[in-house]
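Blinded run. Sample ID left blank on purpose so nobody reads anything into the name before looking at the predicted structure. Input follows.
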Amino acid sequence: MDMKIAGAGVIGGGEYDKVSISGSVKAEGFIRCKELHCSGAFSGNAEIECENEIKISGAFSNSGKIAAKEFRASGSAKTGAVSAEIIKVSGAFKAHGNLKATEISVGGGLITEGDIEAEKAEITGGINCGGLINAEELRVELSNSSGSKAENIGGSRIVIENYREKGIIERIFGRKTCGFVVSESIEGDEIIIEHTKAKTVTGKYVMIGEGCEIGLLQYSESVEISPKAKIGRCEKI
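Blinded prediction complete.
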């Protein structure tokens, strides 16, 4: 059974084929569906299990858990824990729980109270993670306004750098430095970071760029350190 809402409406718990929303909807209960498309505003505390794609355009605020093949949002998204093969958000994304996906792509900024687990994660704007970021390939491009944070970062290839496209303010006044504070450690095979602060960085191939403050730097194969970085101790392991 399909569910269509045009205007304002309420979706209760149940099983549906395709859910199509144009307007404003409140959701509650446990919702199982094959597809969910919403253009407008979606709010509630429903637990959603979607066989295929959840696609949101507008404002999405749902505190319940979400499981889907793909979760895509354009605008702003606030969720509970999300588990999907693909998580792609263009805009601001806040999750009150863990994020788990094969691929995560967020352009605009990501806040999560839990851990982030992915094979590939690309974040533009900034990230505030309440726990561990664990990704085979992690790339973070920091905006001038970002105050990025995480407890620990682990992965195979880790890149943290400033966003490279200069706007008019940067062209006139110069680039402001950005910051990523990792309260404990960064561990990976290949690590390329700038404007990052961490107690410990451990990797095979490590490049420490300008603006970094590292307490202990450990490497096994090679290391490059910018003269504009601060390192407490560096050792080969």
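Unblinding after everyone has recorded impressions. Residues 166-176 have pLDDT under 50 and may be disordered.
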